[in-house]
Amino acid sequence: MKHEQRRIQTSSLVIGGGVAGLSAAIKLSRLGPVILISKGSLVEANTYYAQGGIASVLSKDDSFENHIRDTCEAGAGLCRLDAVRTVIEDGPRAIEELISWGVDFDKAHSGESYHLTREGGHSHRRVIHAKDLTGKALMETLIHLVRGNPNITVMENQFAIDLITSDKYCPDFSKNSCFGAYILNRRSNEIFQIQAGRTVLATGGHGRIYLYTTNPELATGDGIAMGWRAGAKIANLEFMQFHPTCLFHPQIKDFLISEAVRGEGGILRNKVGASFMEDYHPQGSLAPRDIVARAIDRELKRSGETHVFLDVRHLGEEKLKRHFPNIFARCLSIGLDISKEMIPVVPAAHYNCGGLVVDLDARSSIRGLYAVGEVACTGLHGANRLASNSLLEAIVFSDRLAKAAAKDGQMELLHNLPDWDSGDAVSSDEQVVLSHTWDEIRRIMWNYVGIVRTDKRLKRAEAKMVALRRELTDYYWNYQLNDKLLEVRNLAEVAYLTIRSAMQRKESRGIHYNIDYNFTSETAKDTILW
């Protein structure tokens, strides 16, 4: 039975409450009213858990060219040079703005400058940070600004179901256009419509498609799935970066041991205490993440062990507590004193370099739809993200988005957009089915589309995912919506798209390593999905 649904109109709709969404909302509020919706509470965003920091050229010993070179080398030839240069050259300004907003970055011992650390793949110290809780410091500042802005309305615990897109509502446009989104209130199960002059996807990543990940529960690829269903151009989803050092513990499966720990001198060792990274790369434990993750994967397969170790004992308790208080305390809470014992670590899915294809102003291939943050493929990361470039990317592109939006104007607010139609769907008590499917998707991806891939594994994963998506489609159309169903649907969608992207790439490049194509092609190309 169809009911009259609530309709809200706004100048800008921002979907996602991490650093990208909050930054975009602050900048867009200068153009008119903004509604920012978040799937959970704002503090559940992936940014909140970011430990390392923000990479930028802030020292006289460093240069833009150094940072550009490091980024492109990590990106394995697939970076867009214009995107790289744009983000890096705007970095110092972006950092100064964050400082002016109140982000309390760590100062050096002299107190006259900021403390900069070095992470894997970087040739210089250039990562500015707030202890080992940079994401928390950044988010608390941005949340304070957003909540105090009268032009921004924050709606938490709201699930974006789908984008409202069609040419028929605005026939003068030559391509598909976005007019807002259908929203599910996760607490009341009310479905309503937000119509917007412009819509911004800032929904973060999709690390939860893997069994082992550093991502929070909410990272289910909702923005990519919505964009795909709406007809947006998608690229490079095969490039899921596996962070080399996730804490290995039976009760704690998503706690990250920051790259900065190795930047300060942490050494990766095997079960007998021998350092092994020198066998794989000249930079040893500070090699780029893809190389470190594959090296650990190989060591584990060779030894049959479940984990390796990160040794920071030589750094001393005082330094560890000063630079990594959160990591020190969290490990101590499980009985692990990292000043006396090595840290057991294992690779885990962390950050994806692909997403909705956008231009240098965050415009997607759909008119009126922008994307920023991990949901977007800007070209900065190429085939492998350089550590701590992601927060910088989100901040710089949010600023560029707002400036472009001011020039682009906004979509006409219309009155003939259709309500969400639930059809003949009925309620269901089969939540156990969804939980089982969620788990099955993640195991398929971990076992067949993980750190090391083969054509045979990818084909097997594709067949399994096609069958699961068929079951979910039947479930979707026959039962009333709830947040669990929507998450599993999106998870399956993005997992399938990741497999398709991986099958298209007939080479090994950056994060994507297929032993059937143990070479890198001379010509670097994106894998494009429509």
Which CATH architecture of the largest domain? 3-Layer(bba) Sandwich
Main beta sheet strand tally, sense and closure: 7 strands, mixed
Supply the number of structural domains.
3
- CATH topology of the largest domain, what is it called? FAD/NAD(P)-binding domain
Q: What shape does the CA trace take?
A: globular
Amount of helix: 25-40%
Low-confidence stretches: none
By helix and strand content, what is the structural category? alpha/beta
CATH homologous superfamily heading of the largest domain: FAD/NAD(P)-binding domain
Radius of gyration, CA atoms, in whole angstroms = 22 Å
Identify the CATH class of the largest domain.
Alpha Beta
Strand content: 15-25%
**Could you give the distance between the termini?**
34 Å
Question: What is the count of DSSP helices, taking H or I runs of 4+ residues?
Answer: 14
- Average of per-residue pLDDT values: 91
What does this structure look like?
Helix content is 35%, strand content 16%. Strands 1, 2, 6, 7, 8, 9 and 16 form a seven-stranded mixed beta sheet that branches. It has a four-stranded mixed beta sheet with strand order 17-15-10-18, covered by helices on one side. The chain is of the alpha/beta class. The two termini are 34 Å apart. The chain is globular. It folds into three domains: 7-238 and 353-408, FAD/NAD(P)-binding domain, CATH 3.50.50.60; 242-349, Alpha-Beta Complex (Flavocytochrome C3, Chain A, domain 1); 431-517, Up-down Bundle (Methane Monooxygenase Hydroxylase, Chain G, domain 1), CATH 1.20.58. Helix 13 (455-478) packs antiparallel against helix 14 (483-504). It contains 14 helices and 18 strands. The protein has helices at 19-28, 64-74, 81-89, 91-101, 134-147, 222-230, 259-263, 289-303, 317-323, 325-333, 389-408, 431-448, 455-478, 483-504; strands at residues 7-15, 34-37, 54-55, 116-117, 127-128, 152-155, 158-165, 178-185, 191-201, 234-235, 240-247, 267-269, 308-311, 343-352, 355-357, 369-371, 376-377, 528-529.
